Amino acid sequence: MNKTQLSPDERSILLRIARQAIEKAVDQEPIEPLDLPSLTAQLQAAGASFVTLTNMGELRGCIGALQAYQPLVLDVQEHAIAAAMEDYRFPPVSREEVPLLEIEISRLTPSHPLEYSNGEDLLNQLRPGVDGVILRNGIQRATFLPQVWEQVPNPEDFLTHLCLKMGAPGDLWRRQLLRVETYQVEEFREKPTK
Q: 73, 99, 120, 172: which could form a disulfide with 168 (CB 3.0–4.6 Å)?
């Protein structure tokens, strides 16, 4: 990470705001505006985040932004709600599920283009477990956070799954040069209550 890491207090504030936002959204209550001036400079600074929800270790929703366009604290709040209510892969989270959810926040660094000459060169430049990867092909785009390497540790499989997520043939990364960008994350999650 080239940014200053968030403090434990800043992390717990973001996790609390994410959980409160999900609870309000599930109950269809309005979200109270945040008192931005009372927050630290890092929470007020523009930041890009992904919020991932799991239930018993299974993915329950994941939504985020690749570019910073609003204060980090608002980005986390917005994507917590979206992960709970708008991830097209899942039905909206129910009130009964909220206590079972574990919230993980990933704060992204700015992405950088990865220049490569062919599929083999691309494989050699990827850093499993470190880099998040964005693939672009025309208007198609998809990303995997660095945490996805835990489930898909093989770089060939990682790129194949990412092409499929983008809506392209799985071997497209071998057959043509795609726009590839990489980024890193500062990832943190709620402490288990057990």
A: 172
Q: Are 155 and 175 in the same domain?
A: yes
Kindly report, residue by residue over 8-60, the tens digit of the pLDDT: 999 999 999 999 999 999 999 999 899 999 999 999 999 999 999 999 989 99
Q: Give Cα 55 to chain centroid, integer Å.
A: 17
Exposure string over 119-141, b if 16+ CB within 10 A, otherwise e? beebbeebeeeebbbbbebeeeb
Helix (H, G, I), strand (E, B) or coil at 67: coil
Q: What is the CATH number of the domain that holds 153?
A: 3.30.1490.150
124 and 169 housed in the same domain = yes
Q: Express each pLDDT in 104-123 by its tens digit.
A: 999 999 999 999 999 999 99
Its pTM stands at 0.90
